[in-house]
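Session log. Operator J.P. requested a structure for one protein chain; no other inputs attached. Running the standard single-chain path with token output.
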Amino acid sequence: MKKELPKVFHNQINKNIHNNASVFYGKGENRSEEVTVDEIFKLNQVYRTNTKITLKDKVIEKMIIGRTQNNLITFDNEIIPIMDILKIEVL
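Structure written below.
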């Protein structure tokens, strides 16, 4: 019992198509830009902003979710004093 599948219509393409001439794939690039704490909160999406924070004694990569008057709040509930931040970069 051998059945043949029905024929499927497909239109012939008689011209060259160049719709993917400029493709950019940026995964793997590590771009960061130095910003201030106030500039981070002027962004549209503050929640879960990946940052690289240089403190007085160490460099950490944290996800910022909020801010109080004097501190930054990270995704893992760590409090970082703003006065201890030397440089902050958005990843």
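Operator note: The longest strand covers residues 59-67.
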